Write the structure tokens for this entry.
Amino acid sequence: MWKFLIVICVLGNPCVLMEEDPLKFYKTESECMANASAKHSDITTTFKEYGYHIENSHFDCSQEKNSI
């Protein structure tokens, strides 16, 4: 099972690591990456709309070996 992580670094603030809440798991890496990409786009768009300058951002998926 896979979960995604998103890291957003906004100018003048510490970087923030985000995951879904409640945590969701995906069966395949490609399904996870597709959802991560969509959420990443939504989050970065919202930050920009509120006037934040995103210094760096990234998303990725990690495999959870002990997930159900």
Observations:
- The mean pLDDT is 94.
- The chain is about 30% helix and 30% strand.
- The two ends are 8 Å apart (CA to CA).
- Strands lie at 2-10, 16-18, 54-63.
